[in-house]
Amino acid sequence: MIKVLVVSDDMTGNNDVGALLNQSGLNTVAALSDHISKEYMVDRDALCLNTDSRALTSEQAREKVKQVVNNYWNTEILYCKRIDSTLRGNVGSEIDGILEALPKGYKAVVVPAFPKAGRICIGGYMLVDGRTLEECGAHKDVKTPVYHLKVKDIIASQSTRLIETVELKQVRSSQNKLVQTIIQSQADIMIADAVNEHDIIRIARACHMSGVQIVCVDPGSFTAAMAREKYVKNKSGDKNLLVIGSLAETTRRQVDYLIECRNPLVCLIEINRLLQDFDVLKKEVLTWILSQVDEYEDILLLTDDVTDGCEDKILKAEKISEYFTALAAEIYSRLQNKIACVYLCGGDTAQDFLETLDVQAIDIKEEVLPLAVYGRTLCSGKKSFQVLTKGGMIGERNAIIQLLEYAKCVRQEEGE
């Protein structure tokens, strides 16, 4: 039995979301029309159907989508409505159609962003490569022009349902707050801002955690993220531990950009407490991280740059690295079943961290960026993990993100 049913309004979009699902680990077939022979559905996880309804009248599109869902109704299926990334067509009508076919209690969550294609949604406005829908020419489309700039207005012009917009500040609030927003909303249709893939992942995770029956409405990224949350989440853990020992300006820029884009769990270690009150600090940090970690994909450890005293700077630097990496190694040991990859920035930090965990060597795989290397640890009798090492004074501001995405792609390719 299929786990995911996608209803699309044109063939190219149908194929695209099918590819995203397949890349996510679901065996997917995309039909050219709104039905398919049962022989082609054997052992499939996901089915994408094309209603070819973008240019139909609003009523025709609503009825066609409703009928397709009725034909494939099953309580265990994740239902998804694939929409155009510039919101052309019968978006509101087709959402109504899919909700009419489903039992009471389903909510349509609309995540129109498709960051990889330059489409983002912020403040409820849809932007294409930084331009409004009007500026990018969507209102001039011959068959299906778009007459509004806000996603809510586009949907409301076709739908009779109660609609609510969840803005970026809410999306990036704590995971529990976002879950409660979804549960407590009285709206049938919730539109969520997103400007990057990690915003989309947060929304999918919150939807899954909420227990609410969700219909995914999006160009593809949210559907794929939701399917991964429900069906193909990594059993061995999919989190990253980032241990940043470098205070270089280049590193700080990269860290700031990481925080802006991926909203990691940030643990800023006070150097003075690290040196003077290590045991108490370690207990506090471990307790705090263990209570928060399930809400985040990235755990980021770094130090402030405030130190007291006038002792030898080299000796102090050595002590800081020793205590900091001991703390980081303890965090890894406690979370190793959740952590897939460790990112280490700064030569002393990398050396001390790996030695603390009795790593004997690194099985080097590739230099991903200049002075940024990917490999796997070799440690007798202990679990191997992905490791990324990078010098502190090199790389563009998105270097950390590039490296983490590389490691994630390797995990997916290797089936971890």
Question: Can you put this structure into words, describing what you see?
Answer:
The structure is a single chain. The protein folds into 2 domains: about 230 residues, Rossmann fold (3-Layer(aba) Sandwich); about 180 residues, Molybdenum Cofactor Biosythetic Enzyme, Chain A. The protein is of the alpha/beta class and about 425 residues long. The protein contains 14 helices and 18 strands. About 40% of the residues lie in helices and about 20% in strands. A hairpin with a 2-residue loop joins strand 6 and strand 7. An 8-stranded parallel sheet has the order 2-3-1-4-11-5-10-9, with helices on both faces. It is elongated and about 75 Å long. The longest helix has 23 residues.
How far apart the termini lie comes to 24 Å
Number of strands: 18
Q: Provide the residue-averaged pLDDT.
A: 92
The CATH architecture assignment of the largest domain turns out to be 3-Layer(aba) Sandwich
Structural class: alpha/beta
Number of distinct helices: 14
Gross morphology is: elongated
Major sheet size, sense and barrel closure: 8 strands, parallel
Global Rg = 24 Å
Strand order of the largest sheet: 2-3-1-4-11-5-10-9
Bin the helical content.
40-55%
How big a fraction of the residues is strand? 15-25%
Give me the CATH fold name of the largest domain.
Answer: Rossmann fold
Number of domains: 2
Low-confidence stretches: none
Q: What multimeric state do the chains show? A: single chain
CATH class of the largest domain: Alpha Beta
By CATH, the superfamily of the largest domain comes out as Putative sugar-binding, N-terminal domain
